[in-house]
From TrEMBL:
This is UDP-N-acetylglucosamine--dolichyl-phosphate N-acetylglucosaminephosphotransferase. Keywords: Endoplasmic reticulum, Glycosyltransferase, Magnesium, Membrane, Metal-binding, Transferase, Transmembrane, Transmembrane helix. It is an enzyme of class 2 (transferase). UDP-N-acetylglucosamine--dolichyl-phosphate N-acetylglucosaminephosphotransferase that operates in the biosynthetic pathway of dolichol-linked oligosaccharides, the glycan precursors employed in protein asparagine (N)-glycosylation. The assembly of dolichol-linked oligosaccharides begins on the cytosolic side of the endoplasmic reticulum membrane and finishes in its lumen. The sequential addition of sugars to dolichol pyrophosphate produces dolichol-linked oligosaccharides containing fourteen sugars, including two GlcNAcs, nine mannoses and three glucoses. One of its GO terms (biological process) is dolichol-linked oligosaccharide biosynthetic process. Residues 8-27 have a biased composition (Basic and acidic residues). The lineage of its organism: Eukaryota, Viridiplantae, Streptophyta, Embryophyta, Tracheophyta. It is a multi-pass membrane protein. Its EC number is 2.7.8.15. Residues 1-35 are annotated as: Disordered. It catalyses: a di-trans,poly-cis-dolichyl phosphate + UDP-N-acetyl-alpha-D-glucosamine = an N-acetyl-alpha-D-glucosaminyl-diphospho-di-trans,poly-cis-dolichol + UMP. InterPro entries: Glycosyl_transferase_4 (IPR000715), GPT (IPR033895).
């Protein structure tokens, strides 16, 4: 989802009421071949952001716990492939932008309406580029790590099938602008390859304080566990999609959560002596490092002022990828705590999404072109809640505040795990 008005030359139907902040507009002219190129990537900002994460991350890989050389080698090979993916992404986005503009897939930034930037045609649905680069990286990595008889190969390919399915459905949503009720069930279809191929355990460990009351330490949920996996996929994809509306917010929250997931996985590998447990978290790293790299490449163009829109393709793809790694890495509880801001945004949105409170098509803040500030409305989103709580802000400062809040939520998760270790489970 992006803050945009979507242009379409042949749309004569009224768009459905959805959370998506784009709308068809016949009055907008088609993109012409003479449209100027998009602004260059903000690589200086991305470099500063990357250094702040990569230094502690690679320190943990090399010095925390006892990560054996074979596992470390696979992680580093995956990291180098991911770095290559970052540069390919940065290179491919301008090329793809010309094609989507030619096909009239562009929009206007609603949060800049009334300013010169508000009349600039912004290419959208660039998540399709990110998804393709990601899949090529993830498939290529199999050559370096998995053998034909690998126990993880089936689930790895099933994970990629679910991610690929979600990219396809997301791009379909970008092009067709499907109703919100349909958006809710799309991830259920995309998760089918993963659910059908899943051969892991379906048990949960009962928290220690509850064992005297339950009478058992391990509970087998059977098909209920797979239902939970499907619902987790639905939540993760849609929660990224509705916590949006600012330049850089969709890609930015993915970068923050991905960074937290990687640090969590490295810490779990270093602290465990169980080879199967280590491999589960390494599996997660193999899928998240490329996600972080391509998202950084996208963020270099999507950061304020955005020169491309990510589209529902990217938000669905990012949400499904993180759901997949949480499921197959067996840390779905931790993943949900990483998603605390998204959970809060969902709870704030629930009255409107359920129809109990009237839900407008665009649940966005009001933009004042004279001051360049956003003012919160009464709509139930975390974006508007922050503006009502802290006062008017520029779009860039509001996005930074929300991403800091996301990082604080991830830090809270690490603190909570440290406090509960040995007592809760």
């Amino acid at each position: 989802m992006a803050v945009r008005k979507r242009a379409s030359a042949h749309d004569n139907t009224k768009p459905p009421e959805t959370e998506n902040s784009s709308k068809k507009a016949e009055e907008f002219p088609e993109a012409a071949p003479s449209d100027p190129p998009i602004a260059p990537p903000k690589l200086g900002f991305i470099l500063q952001l990357s250094i702040g994460f990569l230094v502690p991350y690679f320190y943990l890989i090399n010095y925390y716990g006892g990560i054996d050389w074979e596992l470390k080698r696979s992680i580093l090979i995956n990291a180098f492939l991911s770095l290559a993916g970052f540069f390919v992404t940065v290179r491919m986005i301008p090329v793809a932008s010309r094609y989507v503009l030619r096909r009239n897939l562009f929009g206007y930034d609603i949060n800049k309406k009334g300013t010169p930037q508000g009349s600039v045609k912004v290419p959208e649905s660039l998540g399709i580029v990110i998804g393709i680069v990601y899949l090529v990286l993830a498939i290529s990595f199999q050559y370096f790590n998995f053998t034909a008889d690998s126990n993880w190969l089936v689930e790895y390919n099933a994970a990629l099938a679910s991610i690929c399915f979600m990219i396809l459905l997301g791009f379909m949503d970008d092009v067709l602008d499907v109703p919100w009720r349909v958006k809710l069930i799309l991830p259920s279809f995309a998760a089918l390859p993963l659910l059908m191929a899943y051969a892991g355990h379906t048990t949960i460990i009962i928290p220690k304080p509850l064992i005297p009351y339950v009478g058992i330490e391990v509970l087998d949920l059977g098909w209920i566990y797979k239902l939970y996996m499907g619902l987790l996929a639905v939540f993760c994809t849609n929660s990224i999609n509705i916590h949006a509306g600012l330049n850089g917010l969709e890609a930015g929250q993915t970068v923050v959560i991905s960074g937290a997931i990687l640090i969590h996985n490295i810490m779990q590998i270093g602290a465990s002596a169980d080879p199967e447990y280590k491999q589960a978290h390494a599996f997660s790293i193999y899928l998240v490092q490329p996600l972080l790299a391509v998202s950084l490449g996208l963020l270099s163009y999507n950061w304020y002022p955005s020169s491309v829109f990510v589209g529902d393709t990217y938000t669905y793809f990012a949400g499904m990828t993180m759901a997949v790694v949480g499921i197959l890495g067996h840390y779905s509880e931790t993943l949900l705590i990483f998603f605390l801001p998204q959970i809060l945004n969902f709870l704030l949105s629930l009255p409107q999404l359920s129809g109990y409170v009237k839900c407008p098509r665009h649940r966005l803040p009001r933009f004042d072109p004279q001051t360049g500030l956003l003012t919160g409305t009464n709509d139930g989103t975390l974006v508007n809640f922050f503006l009502r709580l802290f006062g008017r802000k520029t779009e860039k400062s509001l996005c930074i505040s929300l991403l800091i809040f996301q990082a604080i939520g991830c830090c809270f998760c690490f603190l909570l795990r440290w406090i509960l270790t040995g007592w809760y489970k």
